[in-house]
Amino acid sequence: MYRFLLSRQWVILTLVALLLIPTMIRLGIWQMHRYEERTARNQLVSGALSADAVPVERLTSPGHTVTTDERYHRVTAKGRFDTDDEVVVRRRTNSDDEVGYHVLTPFVLRDGKVLLVNRGWIPANGPSQTAFPKIPAPPGGEITVTGRLMPDETTAASGIKNLKGLPDRQIMLINSEQQAQRLDAQVLGGYIAQTSPEPKGDIPELLGPPGDEDAALNYAYAIQWWLFAAGVPIGWVVLVRRERRDRRAAEAEQTTAETEPAPV
Predict the structure, then answer these.
(1) CB-based burial of residue 102 (10 Å sphere; 0-12 exposed, 13-18 middle, 19+ buried)?
(2) How do residues 100-155 score in pLDDT, each as one tens digit?
(3) 23 Cβ partners below 8 Å, 6+ apart?
(4) How many angstroms separate the CA atoms of 44 and 40, rounded?
(5) Which regions span the lipid bilayer (predicted)?
(6) Interhelix angle 8-50/215-259, nearest 10 degrees
């Protein structure tokens, strides 16, 4: 009764089932790795945001590459804003997905080194985005700023192309090395997303903290794939039994028809 398993149709079905099981198990393992990565990243971000703010030069220096452990850590700096060398970062969105600019202002420390400060988002002047936008001035004189330390932006990490031939004082990526060349100064590696002091008006709009990644979704997907893998052999057995039952019924019907006397 099981010789039908040697038919072409059942051989193909069995091979497909045997391939699906390890594939689904591996997909579940991959989703579990993603869950662990996202959970670790959420814990890292949460720890950095909740840690006490430290002087920025404890974590970065000219030429320094901001590490994953240093990212989002709250830092403070004393100095003054240099609005003469202020630039804007093109094609940035706010919390409502409106397209505008990020305002990048050099912050000159007491020792002459420069810290790049992302003061927040402002709307674009118009569709052309060629003229330098009007930007509310930051506080004058020596002040203390606080912000989240961020690594230099790259095309590889962000997917944003570093276009050339842009309008004056407009850039695509925030990169301390490029700004050091432009300013001819010692620029601390990375930049900070300013959190205080808050602007007097609504603009620039300070950048919000990063949200948690949905790690629980990856965990659910992992369980789902493993349940699918467990369901494949169960489904195969159900199909085999159904096929055997149907074949037995067909044979019984045929036997009955052959043994019945012919009508007179």
Answers:
(1) buried
(2) 999 999 999 999 999 999 999 999 876 666 778 889 999 999 999 999 999 999 99
(3) none
(4) 6
(5) 219-239
(6) 160
Nearest to 112 by CA among 57, 150, 37: 57
Whole-structure pTM value: 0.74
d(CA 194, CA 205): 10
| Cis ω for the linkage preceding 127 (within 30 of 0) | no
What is the domain partition of the chain in residue ranges? 51-196
Closest by CA to 209, choosing from 49, 14, 43, 20, is: 49
- pLDDT tens readout for residues 194-250: 999 998 888 899 998 887 778 889 999 999 999 999 999 999 999 888 888 877 777
Q: Could you identify the residue written with the tokens 């400060």? A: 117
Q: Is 63 left (phi over 0), alpha (psi -120 to 50) or beta?
A: left
